[in-house]
Automatic annotation (TrEMBL):
Cross-referenced PANTHER family: FAD-DEPENDENT PYRIDINE NUCLEOTIDE-DISULPHIDE OXIDOREDUCTASE, PTHR43755
Cross-referenced InterPro entries: FAD/NAD-bd_sf, SQRD
Top-level taxon of origin: Bacteria
The name this protein goes by in its record: Sulfide:quinone oxidoreductase
Source organism of this protein record: Desulfotruncus arcticus DSM 17038
UniProt cross-references to Gene3D superfamilies, sorted A to Z: 3.50.50.100
Length: 235
């Protein structure tokens, strides 16, 4: 989002009048809650330097009041416009059901079932994944749409096997890979991490203009696929 704002301000010719600051719980730029992906730290630090965006890492927000945010180290940041994402937690339905952990995540086995209730499956953003490493400020493993569709396909296969018989597929969430096309203003980056959690068999990280076009094309393809209910198509 900060790269999109940077790009918009430059297009409007107002960037030199608008300081930008990125406040993150990550220990360094490009950590992504994944301990970094390939050269992500170098890429993100270069990008922030080139775009003249200030970054505060390992930051914890104490309070947000109109026009001002207070961090727990005493720093106060004035702002005209801000966007903050609160710490990620599960939905009330899961928290109240007692099926998840205290944060509202479902801890699933390698078949995407709850170990204690094997007729209940969990996929996607509701699934809990242990952090890859301790960080000064806790950071969670991000869950993407691509991971979600992969988990959903595995769970659907296993539910069908429960009903119709046949073998289930065991594919633990820790082995699921991630493919991400991330907008970066006038460009975008392709990130492939297989598996998402380290150590990895394969990592690709490329910032290229064509990735932006690929993302626009993928969005049209994916939305059409969903509208048609053609879930057997890849992606
Ligand atoms: C701003 C943003 C940008 C993102 N960009 C990308 C991206 O570019 N690429 C990518 O791969 N991923 C992206 N993601 C992540 C992706 O959106 C999620 O990983 C994915 O949507 C998770 O799918 P899901 O089906 O598990 O959950 P959701 O898509 O959140 O679906 C859960 C559904 O359950 C419903 N629900 C909640 N509680 C109840 C209840 N009690 N009863 C009934 N229904 C309920 C919700 O309304 C919702 O419709 C992004 C996420 C965000 C927030």
């Amino acid at each position: 989002m900060i790269f999109e704002i940077d790009h918009l301000l430059r297009k409007m010719g107002r960037r030199s009048k608008t300081p930008l600051c990125f406040v993150t719980a990550e220990p360094y730029l490009g950590h992504f809650g994944l301990g970094g992906v390939g050269k992500s730290r170098r890429l993100m630090e270069d990008e922030f330097a080139e775009k003249d965006i200030k970054a505060l890492c390992s930051a914890t927000v104490d309070e947000i009041i109109p026009g001002r945010v207070k961090l727990n180290d005493g720093t106060e940041l004035p702002f005209n416009y801000s966007m903050f994402a609160p710490p990620f937690r599960g939905v009330d339905a899961i928290i109240n059901s007692g099926l998840g952990n205290p944060k509202g995540w479902l801890m699933v086995d390698e078949y995407y079932r709850l170990p204690k209730h094997q007729n209940i499956y969990g996929v996607g953003v509701s699934v809990g994944i242990m952090p890859v490493e301790p960080t000064p400020v806790p950071t969670g493993v991000p869950k993407t749409g691509n991971m979600t569709t992969n988990m959903a396909k595995l769970a659907a296969h296993n539910i069908a096997a429960d009903i119709q018989g046949g073998s289930k597929i065991a594919y633990p969430v820790t082995e699921i890979g991630v493919v991400c096309l991330a907008d970066m203003g006038d460009s975008a980056s392709l990130m492939v991490a297989k598996p998402a959690l380290p150590p990895r068999q394969q990592t690709i990280l490329k910032k290229k203009r064509w990735v932006r076009w690929a993302k626009l094309g993928f969005e049209r393809y994916f939305m059409t696929k969903m509208k048609l209910g053609a879930t057997y198509l890849p992606g």
